[in-house]
Amino acid sequence: MQTTAASCSSLPRDQRAFCKRRLAVALQGRWLSQLAWAEDQPRVWQLQLWLGVFPVNWRQLPDPALLERQITTIGNHLDGSYNGLLTAMVLDPALQLSLNGPANHRLNPNENLARELLELFSLGEGQYSENDVREAARALSGYRIEANQQLVLDPRRHDLGPKSILGRSADFNAENLAHWLSDQPATARQISGRIWRQLVGSLPKSKRIKAIASGWRQQQLSIPWLMQEIRASPEAISSRQQGLRLADPIEVVARSLRLLGSRHPDALAISLRGLRAMGQSPFEPPTVKGWPVNEQWLNLRSLEARRRNIQALLADEEVWATRQPPPALLPTLTPIPPLGLSLPAKPSRENFAQLFADPVWQLA
Amino acid sequence: MKRRTMISLLGAGSASAVFTGGWRRPGASSRQVLVLLELRGGNDGLNTLAPMGDPIYRQARPTLALAETLPLARGLGLHPALAPLLPLWQSQRLAFALGVGWPRPNRSHFKAADQWASASASGEGPGWLATAFDQRRSAGPLVALGASGCTAMEGGKVVALQLGPALLQGKAASSLAPDRAGTNPVLRRMLELELAGQRELQNLRGQLAPLPQGIEIPMGDLGQQVAIALRLIASGACPPVVQLVQGGYDTHSNQAYRHARVLGELAGALAAFDAGLRRLRNRPQVNLLAVSEFGRRLQENGSRGTDHGAASIALLLGDQVPHPFIGSYPSLSSVDERGDLIAGLSPPQLYSQALKQLWG
Questions:
Q1: Which range marks the domain in which residue B98 is found?
Q2: Of A42, A341, B56, B66, which sits 20 to 30 A from B3 (CA to CA)?
Q3: pTM of the complete model
Q4: Residue B14 maps to a domain
Q5: Record: contact A103-B10, CB cut-off 8 A
Q6: Is residue B332 part of a domain?
């Protein structure tokens, strides 16, 4: 898997794009089957959640395999602190490349990574000045990717000397900049809010997020603590019980695939095609802000695409022939009863079609 | 990207207000159509309509300054990739708004996109088209042809639809009454959207006209959207606002190639659009406004690209455009403290002019 980089870039120029796309499609298939079938479901969905916080589109990379490294790196930090994760992400080749990090030279600054780091991965909009962006770009200058796809700091390209960021003057580089940003109360608020949005749906009053953020800081930004705190909150519990959050398309697709139980390659191919139409192909986030969340998906285009495309799974004869459904479609499948089908029901093709077409199937 | 929260989305008017199919007389056609084209990523105004007479332009852009352009007026030259638009310029069906932008932009795509969508400097509130139509109690629907919809149309009571090739072919599914959702706001909104949308889509689908004969639609996403727009306009029941989208303008690196490519696609699609309009009889008056979230930095960066900047240009095309220019080209010598071009024309000014045309 890791050796594919050389194979694509050693090809003649006109074949590289095709090679890269083939690798990306394979990666998307592997990731979707993880989401559908991995034994440790909570872990793989937590990875998916953080991939939405640090989104990288495979098209921005010379080699899609860099995304697998990013996933491994995120996985290594899930039991640690956000400080550790943020530092690792700022130094991650995939994220660096996607935000023009290696183009940022002390003599020719490129602010893309610095700006998104402050706006999306740490402080949040309105919490920093333009000068902070410029100085952060200086701190992040001089990193480049070597032929073996490792990120190194090139002292000739790096802007040495003190930089003044958020009122502190120091000899900042990527690492101590990430630490300094993690120290800021605004970072804890922004990241708690983003995770809350993903897990619960709508944001509570800012007082509530502030309280969680301050508790999180007391826990040294422990990621397991934050996950547990939000998941166990009364708001999250009632959101889950009442189906108050609209699931992401990828959740709906993975869940449909799992319920149907077909491991036929068609099932995966149909699902990936469907996700493209629904606007959530794996590793193709629309912007550096990641994918829409909850009610942001609510438009006719996306709803129609969801329904049409999970029905396509049922229309394929080979997928249907290789299904391994449960003995019955149980009421526990949905947070609230479906509108057009009463459960439990036989796992017949008609009942599957009814369930997949039901708006309630789209709720988390 | 939308950043509106649940509260503003669900709180916008009573739920029943969505079912305002009665606002629109069946078969009634708009006499004026506004086409909003979003150029996503931040189009480099300086290299779209270049200030060829200004030595600062060349100094600031050693590798990116255009060597050859198509001279228009006031020392401004059009990017060569836009050559297909020259006949439109000569027949006064093309104009440019100069120095367009928000004061003190913070250079964030999202913030800027929200500002343009809401027509407010804070970037908060419903889409400007939704607001304008609601205030006037004017009939929709507002139709987005871009695959990711149009934030400017959303958040209000007026029906906002997304119309793509798949929807045009698909057959309508049956909808459930929104009351079935009980107190679940997300579910209720889903059902409302589907019901309102299905009514309007059925209406539009039934009316769609064939493409005017003898025009060639260029390949690509924007070409596809232009084709649907022409079929809507030809239908005799064109929605009052149609949105198109073209991406690819965020040229942080390798700009010379990438910018020429997107501008070439733009020019081809717009020339086809205009050719189509000219072949239609008894069509409404049509005006197109093409905007982008911001312009780019005067100074090129070290990656043969440009970073996010401030003022840019907007393009106006159609039956009643303010040819040749509105606004004035920002000075390259008196720039703001960050070295960015200073805008003299605000997006709400452009919008209010577009709405004035729409409603006379």
A1: 29-170+217-359
A2: A42
A3: 0.67
A4: no
A5: no
A6: yes
